[in-house]
Write a structure and sequence with these properties.
Elements: H1 5-16, E1 26-31, E2 36-41, E3 47-51, E4 56-60, E5 66-71, H2 73-76, E6 81-88, E7 93-100, H3 114-118, E8 127-132, E9 138-143, E10 153-158, E11 164-168, E12 173-178, E13 183-188, E14 207-212, E15 218-223, E16 228-233, E17 244-248, E18 253-258, E19 264-268, E20 273-277, E21 284-288, E22 298-304, E23 307-312, E24 326-330
Protein name: SMP-30/Gluconolactonase/LRE-like region domain-containing protein
Keywords: Signal
Length: about 325
Amino acid sequence: MRYSPLKLALAASLATLAGPALADDWRVLAQFDDRPEGLVADGDGGLFASLFASGRIVRIGADGTVTDIGSIASATGGAAGSTIGIDFDGDDTIYVAFAGHSDLYPWPNDPNVADLACSDSTVLSTGLYAVTVSTGAVAPVATRADGYGFCYTDDPVVMPDGAVLVSDLSRAAIWRIEPDTGAATLWSDDPLFDPGARPLSGFGVGPNGIALGADGASVYAVTGGNPMLVRIPLNEDGSAGAGSMVTYGYDNLDGLEVGPDGAFYLTEAFRSEVWRVAPDAASREQIGAPAGAPLGGPASLAFLGDSLCVTNLDFFGMLPPEHANTVVCKSGVLPQ
């Protein structure tokens, strides 16, 4: 997994096209002093977001007003790490994926040591955390300190039975965690998640964004190493079936949301693109790119009314200051 000079130069040139002028009905909803990563609807006309470096969890109103909910730093002991994907149970709990950083093997700053970073036994904070919205209280649900082999926990999704599935970017797998007991099992390490020795994107990573399908019968995941949308059917007992490829032909995919229209919405982190894939995957439409939108390393997605909103993780720091560290939204994506 290498960041080639050519790829970095290409990303930089694309990002500069985002410029000060907004186009294609994209607008900046909120801006922070840290990079936003996770995003989910709050069920009350706003959004929840996670901030990558500080661990803060915030609420964003429809008018862009930001209020703090809490910070998972209170439960990690201030451990250095990445606060990544989030999901909301629709009641009072936000589940947050956190990946602790290794002092010995500085992944993700050095992408070539991802496997070694996973084996650093001194990293204990990686795992899933629960934030209580009404009080701001934070507690670990399941972490490496409990003996689980999490590597880079990335994106959670709350299942209908209350369990939480969490993608593991570097282990190339999806975990199932029971919030009531903290028990964790490896739910799927499907071969389609494996980036292999020569990943097509050049990034040696597996599943990133995950989401429950519109019919509730499958879980979908986007992959970064060999970029594709993967379907994992749910067996009757809740276990994972064999994966199948739904669509491919992208670069390093990051975020995934299944819209109320049943379509799949994807973010591509390196080329800074946002895509809509039809429910039957028969067609796709690019609905955002740096040439016409303030996008830089878009990560998670969520809907706000008829608008699709995304977090600009901008991992390579290529957005201009007025668009950096933002949640941006495109209006009119969903019919009203």
